[in-house]
Write a structure and sequence with these properties.
CATH superfamily of the largest domain: Peptidase S8/S53 domain
CATH architecture of the largest domain: 3-Layer(aba) Sandwich
Distance between the termini: 13 Å
Helix content: 10-25%
Number of strands: 40
Radius of gyration: 28 Å
Strand content: 25-35%
Shape: globular
Number of helices: 16
């Protein structure tokens, strides 16, 4: 492997030179699904009749609950879900300066708040004039009163998880919660109230009598009743004969602290010197078994040494023991577990990296994001922390059944979710090295979100001739300090946590979750022998296995990595018209060549009431060539930017590439290749890895024949709901992002690093090498206190 010792670079956009204004489009033709006049009138009459049921429900409110708004469910045809059409639908329901759309149901229906008889009359008056609202009415298929989802458990002893409608009004929600609590007290119902997020309060009800349950189901603001999910930690150890020297911190050296949200960490000799003096525990000592947490902590701190491989490249940081799970055999309800996690994280605001190797077994929804995931997202937004979360395990491989999807909690958007790949293959193991472990759950998350994002080594598994499950584990520590083996995504996750800690320690500056995630995902690759389609690779392994710390932060002379961190404000976008693509990368035909990897990680705006549209903001990235800069006529109404690109060619479009390269083929670039047509809007992470030589001949001639100029463009987009909420609050919408671009010469002929650096300087970009901290020298000793040899690596 060629040496890598040239630091990757940060660069900045050049102020107004690279800033553009978002331009308005033309009015456009009427939608093809616009209904004729007679059908519109019939539909309006039908909707008015349905609206009558809402009027009756408001009139029937008990006086003390008359303040509770009714909710109607509005089904909009799929081809009318565009933001402009939603605005037309909103005109029917929204009075002046109001926005009454309070969310999306799981079926992607709009939920609309109707707060009074006067509001009903306003809507009815609009429906009396169907031609004035022709687009909005044509877009609507059905209007009906909202009905809460009620899924009662068969076992009556199972606690109930109750959610109320979020009216997007803090004072209204507080009044509604108070009225619901009064109902519970009158029915003598034992309940527990937990704040999952700022907009989501969950009530856990226990031992509810049948007559009282009817009263609860009739509460006017009820959203849903479900069984309360429960969680537990399990661990089965296999003995290993490996002995390992003990590392100790260097006196006076500062170390990053990683929080371990688990079952507790035993102060064994290998771990005790690294334990933070602070700790958090939600349990009394008889309720604690530290086996699982100790194994996780061992992988965090000694992962490479335990396997005698340089997989991560670091392992020196303090550990904060946060015992949030009870011992095996004891279940914990979701609301209690989340409260434990919140208490631990909020009590230690200086700890910004957390490992969470635990979660439920219930599969996440294909459309709606889980309450657990939303809670983890808001906690990270509130604290600026990053949670590395396991993707979950299943044993379906024993019966040759398909893998289960990731569980609720692993659909957290802001968390970095980690699956497992096999580190080796034993006699009964099912998969070769580098393939997804048989027990590792697969994605996608809701709305086809890429989850897990990364994988790391967590073991292998198979079935013996007798039909019994067999696991090939990875190494870590038992409660007594011996080295044992275990398999699971619980133990691939701390390797990624260690990588994040190592990157954060090596890169100078404040803790930066966007940068850390982007660096790891940008470096991730698939095993070259992985014969899966691109979609299956993403589903099972996310973006792949990340590189070690040094491989991430250094380049070879034949490649150059540039990082751009900024934010995009609504109404503007970034367009760099002289991107520093190396002019030395020309082949004998006079065409540009090279491998390009582009990774974009954003901090999305999230709204827990918008169902599958939980992610409310998006950034699209384009990268490619154009012929020259052209002047534009800004006197025209729709033109705001005085310059633009002539004949732009976006090289990230999969349609430019030969079909055989869009599927799996045995080719050196297979481990890197990443192109996907359905990345979709509102995905916070996007990655492209392209080889320009894989373009079709016609596209190479048109898009790559010199002379060409190179551009990079980033355009932001916000949902209709986000724009309406921001307008009501006077907020200026913006999105933070981290973009990383690597350009590589696969033939290793040219000094790409120097060429890109010269171009940055020539085109007046501010740029600098990524700033690195000094190395840490560790004390290594054996358990008896004597000197020990350095661990071997390969």
């Amino acid at each position: 492997m060629e040496p890598k010792n040239l630091p990757i670079k940060l660069f900045s956009k050049r102020g107004t030179q690279d800033e553009r204004k978002t331009e308005a489009g033309g009015g456009g033709p009427q939608p093809s699904w616009l209904l004729p006049e007679d059908v519109l009138e019939a539909r309006a009459t039908e909707f008015r009749q349905s609206l009558g049921a809402t009027a009756q429900s408001i009139a029937a409110r008990r006086p003390e609950r008359s303040f509770i708004p009714a909710v109607v469910q509005v089904t909009v045809r799929e081809d009318a879900m565009a933001k402009s059409h939603r605005g037309e639908v909103g005109k029917i329901f929204n009075r002046k300066e109001e926005y009454n759309f309070i969310g999306l149901s799981e079926d992607l229906d709009f939920l609309v708040k109707v707060d009074s008889p006067e509001h009903v009359a306003f809507i009815d008056h609009n429906l009396e004039r169907p031609l004035a609202f022709s687009i909005g009415l044509s877009a609507i298929d059905e209007i009906r009163p909202f009905q809460p989802r009620i899924d009662l458990p068969q076992d009556t002893s199972t606690p109930l998880k109750v959610k109320l409608v979020n009216y997007q009004d803090r004072q209204m929600n507080a009044q509604v919660e108070s009225a619901f609590e009064q109902t519970l007290r009158e029915g003598q119902v034992a309940y527990r109230k937990t704040r999952y997020t700022s907009g989501l309060t969950v009530f856990k009800l226990e031992h509810v009598r049948p007559d009282t349950l009817v009263t609860v189901q009739e509460f006017e603001a009820l959203y849903s009743i479900d069984p309360m999910p429960a969680y537990r930690i399990t661990l089965d150890e296999l003995s290993s004969g490996l002995e390992l020297p003990v590392k100790t911190p260097v006196a006076g050296q500062d170390y990053l602290t990683v929080g371990v949200l688990d079952s507790g960490i035993a102060p064994i000799p290998h771990l005790a010197p690294w334990l933070d003096a602070r700790r958090y525990s939600a349990y009394r000592e008889p309720e604690v078994d530290r086996s699982h947490g100790t194994f996780v902590a061992g992988v965090l701190l000694y992962g490479d040494e335990l396997e005698q491989r340089s997989w991560v490249g670091v392992g020196e940081f303090k550990l904060l023991d946060a015992t949030v799970f009870p011992r095996p055999g004891l279940e914990i309800d979701e609301d209690e577990l989340l409260e434990n996690i919140q208490n631990a994280v909020l009590a230690h605001p200086d700890v910004l990296l957390w490992n969470l190797s635990g979660g439920g077994t219930m599969e996440c929804s294909a459309r709606d994001f889980s309450d657990f995931g939303k809670s983890l997202d808001e906690l990270q937004q509130r604290t600026g922390a990053l949670i590395c979360k396991s993707a979950g395990n299943c044993t379906n491989f024993v019966s040759a059944a398909p893998k289960r999807r990731i569980p609720i909690s692993a659909d957290s958007v802001r968390s970095l979710v980690v699956g497992s790949v096999a580190h080796s293959q034993g006699p009964d193991d099912l998969v070769p090295e580098g393939h997804a472990s048989p027990f590792s759950r697969s994605g996608f998350g809701p709305n086809k979100l890429i989850k897990p994002e990364l994988v790391h080594y967590g073991g292998n598994g198979g079935v013996t001739a007798g039909g019994r499950m067999k696991l090939t584990g990875v190494n870590s520590f038992s409660l007594t300090g011996g080295v044992v083996q275990q398999a699971g995504t619980s133990f691939s996750t701390p390797r990624v946590s260690a990588l994040m800690a190592g990157l954060s320690h090596r890169v100078a500056g404040d803790f930066n979750p966007l940068l850390l995630k982007a660096l790891a995902i940008h470096s991730a690759k698939y095993h070259p022998g992985l014969s899966l389609s691109p979609s299956d690779r993403l589903r099972e392994l996310g973006f792949g296995l990340p590189s070690s710390v040094d491989d991430i932060i250094f380049n070879s002379p034949h490649e150059s990595t540039l990082i751009l961190q900024d934010n995009i404000v609504r109404g503007g976008y970034i367009e760099i018209l002289d991107f520093p693509f190396p002019d030395v990368l020309l082949n004998d035909e006079g065409q540009f060549y090279g491998e390009v990897t582009v990774t974009l990680v954003t901090d999305p705006r999230l709204d827990g009431n918008q169902g599958a549209e939980y992610c409310q903001s998006n950034i699209d990235v384009s990268f490619g060539t154009y012929d020259r800069i052209r002047l534009r006529d800004t006197t025209k109404r729709t033109i705001s930017n005085p310059i633009g690109k002539l004949n732009p060619y976006n090289l990230l479009l999969s349609s430019n590439y030969a079909a055989k390269f869009q599927r799996y083929i045995d080719h050196p670039f297979t481990a890197e290749r990443q192109l996907r047509d359905d990345l979709g809007k509102y995905h916070p992470i996007k990655k492209f890895a392209i080889n320009l030589q894989e373009m079709t001949e016609a596209h190479r001639v048109r898009g790559l024949t010199a002379p060409k100029k190179w551009y990079l463009e980033l355009k932001g987009l916000f949902s209709h709901a986000a724009e309406a909420a921001a307008a009501a609050d006077g907020e200026v919408l913006s999105q933070e992002f981290c973009l990383i671009v690597t350009i590589r010469d696969p033939l290793q002929r040219h000094d790409v690093y120097s060429s890109v650096t010269r171009s940055l300087t020539l085109n007046n970009f501010q740029h600098n090498n990524i700033q690195l901290r000094n190395e840490v020298n560790l004390n290594l000793r054996n358990t008896s206190g004597g000197p020990a040899p350095e661990p071997t690596t390969e």
